[in-house]
Amino acid sequence: MTLKKLAHGQISFRPLEPEDLETIYRWENDPEIWQVSNTLTPFSRYILKQYIEESHRDIFETKQLRMMIEDSTGCAVGAVDLFDFDPFHQRAGIGILIYNKKNQGKGLATDALRLMALYATEVLGLHQLYANITVDNQASIHLFKKVGFEWVGTKKDWIRTSAGWLDEELYQLLLK
């Protein structure tokens, strides 16, 4: 697979658009996903509008990148993020969201992770991607392993939840 456009399999990537405000507002303010996004408080529309307006800035400046994931009909079904971008050590963290449960389990996230790995290699020149996943998130663990990420360690009692503490596992994908 080579990168000729920002598409792979059933999905394509596109940058954030002003029209995404309400979608991102809904996603970011859903308490059901706060644990995986390390969020504690809601985001205002004002803050998210500013975030979208600044999203055109270069990843080398902001150290992060968000792409919207669209399905084959052009509908935004999720987002993929690179964060803690480190060009010297050629690595970044990666996170992914396929928001609506009806779109989960259809291979969209697999296609998106594979495309982002290719983008990270061919465009950004990265050597590795990593993901932090709580041990109770078996769907994400399966997804990342399927794409080639390997378990490299466990952070004990890393995430505090209303039910107690969760371990968080670190997964890594060496790109080149």
Q: What sequence of helices (H) and strands (E) makes up the elements?
A: EEHHHHEEEHEHEE
The overall average pLDDT, rounded, is: 93
Q: How many E strands?
A: 8
CATH homology group of the domain at 7-126: Gcn5-related N-acetyltransferase (GNAT)
CATH architecture of the domain at 7-126: 3-Layer(aba) Sandwich
Q: Taking Cα atoms only, what radius of gyration do you get, to the nearest Å? A: 16 Å
Counted by DSSP, the helix tally is 6
Stretches where pLDDT is under 50 for at least 5 consecutive residues are none
What's the CATH first level of the domain at 7-126?
A: Alpha Beta
What gap, in angstroms, lies between the N and C termini?
14 Å
Protein model, in words:
The chain is an alpha+beta fold. It has helices at 21-28, 34-37, 45-54, 59-62, 108-122, 138-147, and strands spanning 7-8, 11-14, 65-70, 76-86, 91-98, 128-134, 150-161, 164-174. The protein has an 8-stranded mixed sheet with strand order 1-2-3-4-5-6-8-7. Helix 1 crosses helix 3 (45-54) and helix 5 packs across helix 6 (138-147). Pathway: Siderophore biosynthesis. InterPro entries: Acyl_CoA_acyltransferase (IPR016181), Acyltransferase_MbtK/IucB-like (IPR019432), GNAT_dom (IPR000182).
Q: Which helices and strands appear, and what pairs or packs with what?
A:
Layout: E1 7-8, E2 11-14, H1 21-28, H2 34-37, H3 45-54, H4 59-62, E3 65-70, E4 76-86, E5 91-98, H5 108-122, E6 128-134, H6 138-147, E7 150-161, E8 164-174
Parallel strand pairs: 5-6
Antiparallel strand pairs: 1-2, 2-3, 3-4, 4-5, 6-8, 7-8
Helix pairs in contact: 1-3, 5-6
Pfam family, one: Acetyltransf_3
GO molecular function: acyltransferase activity, transferring groups other than amino-acyl groups
Protein name: Acetyltransferase
